[in-house]
């Protein structure tokens, strides 16, 4: 009988994890669906379908992440949403 040794090697992987920021859009009782949809298309480069879906999520759930990415890319997009009277923040 022979004995075989099993050697377990530990592999350590270091990753640079980039933190993705998010623009969160909040529900309000002021803006119409059409205004929210049009603004998401312009400010966040959404397709009409994406913008419509986000507006429905915001309406029924109270908030929705509408864009993720680097802070430098999200800041002007969030500012555009705010200028158009929407409630949004970068988290």
Textual characterization of the structure:
With 91 residues, the protein is α+β, with helices and mostly antiparallel strands. It is built from 3 helices and 3 strands. It has helices spanning 33-44, 48-61, 71-83, and strands spanning 21-26, 63-69, 87-90. Helix 1 (33-44) packs antiparallel against helix 3. It is elongated and about 80 Å long. 24% of the residues are buried. The model has no long low-confidence stretch (mean pLDDT 91). GO terms for molecular function: peptidase activity.
Helices and strands, with pairings:
Layout: E1 21-26, H1 33-44, H2 48-61, E2 63-69, H3 71-83, E3 87-90
Antiparallel strand pairs: 1-2, 1-3
Helix pairs in contact: 1-2, 1-3
CATH topology: Ribosomal Protein L30, Chain: A
Strand runs, count: 3
Strand content: 15-25%
Main sheet, how many strands, which sense, barrel? 3 strands, antiparallel
Question: What share of residues is helical?
Answer: 40-55%
Give the overall form.
Answer: elongated
Instruction: Report the uncertain regions.
Output: none
CATH architecture name: 2-Layer Sandwich
Major sheet: arrangement of strands: 2-1-3
Total DSSP helices? 3
CATH superfamily: Ribosomal protein L7/L12, C-terminal domain/Adaptor protein ClpS
How many distinct folded domains?
Answer: 1
Measured between the Cα atoms of the first and last residue, the distance is: 62 Å
**What top-tier CATH class fits best?**
Alpha Beta
GO biological process, one term: protein catabolic process
InterPro entries: ClpS_core, Ribosomal_bL12_C/ClpS-like
GO molecular function: peptidase activity
Protein name: ATP-dependent Clp protease adaptor ClpS
């Amino acid at each position: 009988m022979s004995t075989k040794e099993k050697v377990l090697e530990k592999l350590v992987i270091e990753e640079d994890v980039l933190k993705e920021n998010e623009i969160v859009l909040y529900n309000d009782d002021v803006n119409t669906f059409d205004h929210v949809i049009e603004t998401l298309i312009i400010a966040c480069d959404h397709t009409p379908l994406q913008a419509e879906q986000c507006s429905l999520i915001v309406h029924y759930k109270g908030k929705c992440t509408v864009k993720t990415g680097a802070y430098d890319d999200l800041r002007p997009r969030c500012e555009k949403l705010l200028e158009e009277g929407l409630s949004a923040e970068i988290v």
